[in-house]
Amino acid sequence: MGDYIKSFSDIDIDDIALVGGKNASLGEMFQKLSSKKVQVPDGFAVTSDAYWYYLEQQHLKEGVFKELQHLDTVDFSNLKKVGAAIRNHFSKAALPHAIKEAIQEAYAGLIKKYGTDISLAIRSSATAEDLPNASFAGQQESYLNVKGVEELIAACQRCYASLFTDRAIKYREDNGFDHKKVALSIGVQLMVRSDLACSGVNFTLDPDSGFDKVVLVSSIWGLGENIVQGSINPDEYFVFKPSLKKGVQQPIISRKLGSKEKTMIYDSSGSGTLNLYTTIEKQEQFVLTDAEVVQLAKWSVIIEEHYGRPMDIEWAKDGLTKELFIVQARPETVQSAKNKLEITTYTLLEKGKEITRGMGLGHKITTGKARILRSPKESDRLQQGEILITEKTDPDWDPILKKAAGIITDQGGRTSHAAIVAREIGAAAIVGCINATKLIKDGQEITISCAEGTTGIVYEGNLKWKETAVDIKNLKTPQTQAMLILADPEQAFKFSFYPSSGVGLMRLEFVINNSIQIHPMALRHFERVKEEQVKQKIEKLTHHYPNKEDYFVHQLAEAVATIAAAFYPKEVIVRTSDFKSNEYANLIGGKQFEPVESNPMIGFRGASRYYHPKYKDAFELECKALKMVREEMGMENIKIMIPFCRTLKEAHKVVQLLENNGLKRGENALQLYMMTEIPNNVILAEEFAHYFDGFSIGSNDLTQLTLGVDRDSQLLSDIFDINDPGVKKMIAMLIASAHKTHTKIGLCGQAPSDYPEFAQFLVEQGIHSISFNPDALISGIKNMNKAEENSRQLRDLRK
């Protein structure tokens, strides 16, 4: 076979110049990872030497490169014409006898080893001798289900022509590659019968954020071309690498069902493929079993460790043997090249005519078309990237808000629903404008600026602004721990790169409202649900779960696990659910199970719900989810925090209830925290310390209950002030008690980033940690550093 053919067993990664990156990687894995049980289908490569010989023997160089001289390299106006002319040259030039003979001999070897009933995948693998690490991925053609030596030779000839597809020509022009130095190798590989099963792509990091402690496994029905081309929406699974290595029961931390609209199969008439619509039944099924997901993730980690870098991996499952195979692996080149030590800040470059102003959130700037909505029922009017203008929002708006580039409300303060959700989804927002819905016109182009302190301003038109990446590499770490407030698992991997000590508050309400949507009691006691319409909604959402309770447990566990994984091994303090009764009632099936209260803010909420007969069964589902995250998924960095715990008797009941549900304080290093937000928590802090390992100051509720002010009341907004002497005295007393009992003490809230003097106060009192929303973390850290420096200078003066 001379220099024209190399079997996979004779190829390794050092042969890129000869066989291209795709084939070199296949040979490398076939040779060196088979002993680690990574299965790679056998095959051979037609080398780049064969390509050069083909051009030489058929006198193609002159014609091909003459055509390229006519290419318009500015506007590419004649690209289509030039490409077609070049490919025509190839179609008229038969492969030389020596190359045909070498291919026939290699094919005969595969027949002898595997029998006559085989089909082949023929893949192009471009390479450049002087640029062996250049990636030409996706530029040339592949051919599937090729049968017989004649079809194999014809497919090889088409592969050579595909070196000059329009996209390949333009790719080389755009990247400065000399066409005369780029060659083509062809990979000939045994086809895995994934047409009868499934296939997919794995990344050994999150391709959106670059977070590298997970493997992303994606899967579709049928042959893999659909997923490689990005033409359909696959199932997706995230597998946590540390849990995988520890061998825990459940290392899969997230599952998302894709629509998988099409399935590519073999053409029953012979060779080639057909792309058929997937049946509804199969669209609604997950493609892989958990065991298969874990197997693929393990292989992916082995491949990543072998190459010493993040990898992009293609796999296929054989529908006849039910075996999994790796069919390609290449380096991941996008996220692994990015600088993760940057955080973006925003600056307005010009001033425009002010329309209105309110409380600014998000420290961002955005522009877009204003869309005035009166209720969530008008959600179809809001287009992706538009700015939502409304009077106020509540949890019914949550599915809509993610579409908005910005949020503006007439009503609400810094602790309103719109404010909380805006921070969670990372949207720019202005709340409490009073008259935004009257002053802003529907469809008007506007600019939201929240980058000018605590006041947010709405301007007419699309003003110029800039984003600046802040290098956090040299940001000094304060002695006081800076932590994050998070709720949305979808943003966790991105925020894992921020300079925090972990998550000081994870709110479960966001997950329950957005992902689960159903009241837990309606799942625990589905037989008691009365309304037929509600039953139908629940059946639709839970149809993958024969046991409806598992729907709640698994959805909640995966959300918590995703955030825990993002910050592992740093601590993640998860606050158990703290909806008020009116908010719980808004969940599907909630009205039937919730009381009607005149003042839900100080009603049936927090710890009081957990042991009460009206909610105890639901709280047990939360416990089950948290136990799953800690024990089955291996996230021992999870700590549990109890909100709104009014009395010592209540603390005893809840701690005992947790223990009864397998969450015993101290067992498996479990720590329990209490949200201190009630004056009684401050007065009896030393006694509460007998039940809890840590306290977290809920500054909004503590301010509300100290001053007797409804935190959502606009009429009393001037009185609601965390800097009030009485509130600060409460906080100082609590920190002092925590020090006395050696209990960790932190605070969650916006004030330390908005008000440097408040950060100074907390540092002087000796608080252990402060938790910020992600958009406020950098300013918060700077305030903490300044406060600690001031305290040091003051101590030096006293000496």
Strand order of the largest sheet: 23-24-25-26-27-28-29-30
Strand content: 15-25%
CATH C-level class of the largest domain is Alpha Beta
Compute the number of structural domains: 5
Distance between the termini: 86 Å
Task: Describe the global form.
Answer: elongated
Quaternary structure = single chain
Structural class: alpha/beta
Flag low-confidence runs: none
What's the mean pLDDT score?
A: 90
CATH topology-level name of the largest domain: Dna Ligase, domain 1
Question: Can you tag this structure with a few keywords?
Answer:
7-stranded mixed β-barrel; 30 strands; 799 residues; Glucose Oxidase, domain 1; D-amino Acid Aminotransferase, Chain A, domain 1; Dna Ligase, domain 1; alpha/beta
Word description of this protein:
- With 799 residues, this protein is α/β, with parallel strands linked by helices.
- It has 5 domains: 187 residues, ATP-grasp fold, A domain (Dna Ligase, domain 1), CATH 3.30.1490; 143 residues, 2-Layer Sandwich (D-amino Acid Aminotransferase, Chain A, domain 1); 129 residues, Phosphohistidine domain (Glucose Oxidase, domain 1, 3-Layer(bba) Sandwich), CATH 3.50.30; 137 residues, Phosphoenolpyruvate-binding domains (TIM Barrel), CATH 3.20.20.60; 129 residues, TIM Barrel (Alpha-Beta Barrel).
- Helix content is 38%, strand content 22%.
- The strands form 6 sheets. It has an 8-stranded parallel beta barrel, surrounded by 6 helices. A 7-stranded mixed β-barrel has the order 15-19-18-17-16-20-21.
- Strand 18, helix 13 and strand 19 form a beta-alpha-beta unit.
- The longest helix is centred in the last third of the chain and has 22 residues.
- It is elongated and about 95 Å long.
